[in-house]
Write a structure and sequence with these properties.
alpha/beta, 11% strand, 155 residues, elongated, TIM Barrel, 3-stranded parallel beta sheet, two-stranded antiparallel sheet
Length: 155
């Protein structure tokens, strides 16, 4: 899968050369473990890591991967889960606590994918920029009337 769908025929006829020339960058749609990330970076195959909280197993695992990428000097592209202000808030805080040299961008998808808000007080993009709120915790207030009762409570 590539970042666009309209490419000249020679791109596909000479795919490896096209990638080596930097004309296109392949996008891989699977999650890699830390050993694979390290090996890809060591072999010069990794120029950035795209991270979705839900795809890597939650915020704690995302932080471990983020810390590992920072140690390797691998820039990270952060994405939140579609339609979830709570997920977006966590990923936004993780993104903004990442050193600038290891941050490429943050895609806040919560406000563009669903008309129903699951939390109040979430950050919103302004002129292409977004900043985490300065409220305690994630800075959002869950809308329990939308989310319903908890499925489980851990104490």
């Amino acid at each position: 899968m590539f970042g666009c769908t309209s490419l000249e025929p020679d791109v596909f006829e000479n795919l490896i050369r096209t990638i080596e020339q930097g004309r296109i960058s392949p996008v891989v749609a699977r999650t890699f473990d830390l050993v694979e990330i390290h090996d890809a970076q060591k072999d010069g195959l990794l120029d950035r890591y795209a991270m979705k909280t839900a795809r890597v197993g939650g915020l704690t695992k995302a932080r471990k991967i983020r810390d590992f990428c920072v140690e390797l000097g691998v820039p990270i592209h952060f994405q939140c889960t579609w339609g979830a202000e709570l997920s977006m808030a966590g990923m936004l805080h993780l993104s903004q606590s990442t050193p600038e040299h290891c941050r490429t961008e943050f895609w806040p998808l919560a406000h563009s994918s669903t008309p129903i808000a699951t939390a109040d007080g979430s950050a919103k993009p302004v002129d292409g920029l977004i900043e985490a709120t300065h409220e305690p915790g994630l800075g959002v207030r869950p809308r329990l009337e939308i989310l319903g009762s908890p499925v489980a409570i851990y104490q």
